[in-house]
Specification:
Layout (H helix, E strand, L loop, with lengths): L2 H4 L6 E7 L5 E13 L3 E6 L3 E4 L4 E3 L4 E6 L4 E8 L2 E9 L3 E2 L4 E12 L5 E4 L1 H11 L2 H20 L7 H18 L1
Parallel strand pairs: 1-10
Antiparallel strand pairs: 1-2, 2-3, 2-4, 3-6, 4-5, 6-7, 7-8, 8-10, 9-10, 10-11
Length: about 180
Amino acid sequence: MTREARGPKEGDFITIKSYKHDGSLHRTWRDTMVLKTSENALIGVNDHTLVTEDDGRRWVTREPAIVYFHKHYWFNIVAMIRDNGVSYYCNLASPYVLDKEALKYIDYDLDVKVFPDGEKRLLDVDEYEDFSQRWHYGEETDRILKANVLTLVDWINHHKGPFSQAYVDLWYQRYQELLRRSH
């Protein structure tokens, strides 16, 4: 089996591309390091990663962030490791697909931010309503996204997966080991 058919392996770098429902490119992350791939999920890290917005604006991520994508859940999770603790940014989005070019998903505007003290905020509800009407998300997509918000909040409340400190510590430590090995 070729490497392309198998997908990226630990320590490889991939590009992540988010799109809007109409197919337009929304945002690109260059050089996300892959920490783990499985049949259904991909875990990576962004650390001083170049991000390009749809308007051409470019910026670099400030702190290390563990990224979690799943092929069955309509969200992805970014755990930002900061001096004051871990903050989370969760995108309500289609399950990802991975091809030779990039890991890709459709961003559905709604976001959940979790602060180091555990406070949760649902963001961009107005943007979601606007784009839902403009691009005709439809009842099925709306139902799926709202159900996945509930799943996401349950994960947050129960410190499941990426919302566990042990998970963040494990993958950040693995990232540091891979960095040391490559230098």
